[in-house]
Amino acid sequence: MPPTELLADALGPDFTVERELTGGGMSRVFVAYDARLDRRVVVKLLRQELAASVSVDRFRREILLSAGLQHPNIVPVLSAGEVEGHPFLVMPYVAGESLRARIAEGPLRVPDVVRILRDVARALAYAHGRGVVHRDIKPDNILLSSGAAVVADFGVAKALQSALRGTSGPQPRTITAAGTALGTPDYMAPEQIAVDPAMDHRADLYAFGATAYEMITGVTPFHSRTPQALFAAHLSETPRAIAACRPGVPLALCALVERCLEKDPAARPQSAAEILEALDDPAVISGAFATPNDAAAESAARRGSRRRRLAVAAALLLVAGLGAGGVYAARDDAPAPAAAAAASPLPAVAVLPLVYLGVDSSSYLAESFTSELTSALGGVRELRVASRSAATALQQRLSRGEGIGDAVAMFLEGVVEREGDRVRVDARLVDARDGFMLWADSYEGRANEIFALRAELGAAVAEVVRERAAPRPDSSVAAAPR
Mind telling me the catalytic residues? Predict the structure, then answer.
């Protein structure tokens, strides 16, 4: 039987399912007419590939906790039920357009950005005050109607997380069926990507910042990347400065949005109420703004401060993502070592993509460590560092049993392992001329100390390679004798 007929039977004789909407993500979305109350409602039916993993009773109990949210800027949940084992929920139909559709027309005017952000912040302040975290703030879930913004789907992601079958034990699970995650990669906070059990309402503030960034610039902070690369970027990269993307935006607004996008939850605004207070400052609409030259300088300063910002990041649980993706290294614009060898006397080193050893879904954690090591070595003036693509090509040549010639003097390789809440990284520095190891060490730490472990490893490897690359009186080769 078609879903429309199944829903009509479940909703009762007073309802007529009229049409299906597009862009539902985790759900199929239908518009139904309620003849008894002469109104239209939206019915969200969980997709089949997710429904098989969900306890319907637990989902209903969890979603009804959000039904008590009654606020002008929140789309409430009216009821919940199930159709042949597929949970659904009923919400009021909001006439208007989504923020997603509005952004598709281009970046918003600053007054409109601030007005919408105020409405969303009011909704978050109210929900957070009642212990409800959204977990999926994004333009698709913000609806614009009659001059106001309202937030939909409060509690849906949390309900799905709690309703997953087999969620006993300390390690939460994430739905990955059909490439769908609990949250949307473009907007997910680092601690949400890391499935940190200590994650709180500040994850919504990060997503709020990502949404605001897109409203102002027209693109998300790390746009045009695969989900795997997005996860790595949220964990380790600083977005391009807003003022560099769009000069003329008040600096106070830029600063607020960029604070929301801090990796460390403690460095963000600590509440939606704090954001509201900042948005009430007239400077966010009419204050001083950066000139194009100022914006370029600010962007360069933010790139230069990336490692300092990572060093103070808060404890995060180990990533449990969707698989390995591309590495985005700080020196990806560097020339390939083979092509540049004759142009510089400095020794060249390559960080080969680290390998993840495990059967769980934490494989792209290795990519995060690879990016950190490449960035750390990029800060050593005595070295030239291979770009991401060049290092990957070298690894492929080694895997085929081929030599790498004179492309680099040394290369770094290693493996990342996870067991329970422990992470272990085994790193080795290898002389590219003969394949003998110059140095090897292991680093281990708790999964919720991932940033500190990465920073420690990066600093240690940079120091070792700097020492090995130093010229020796008895050798014309940059690498130290074994």
Answer: 136
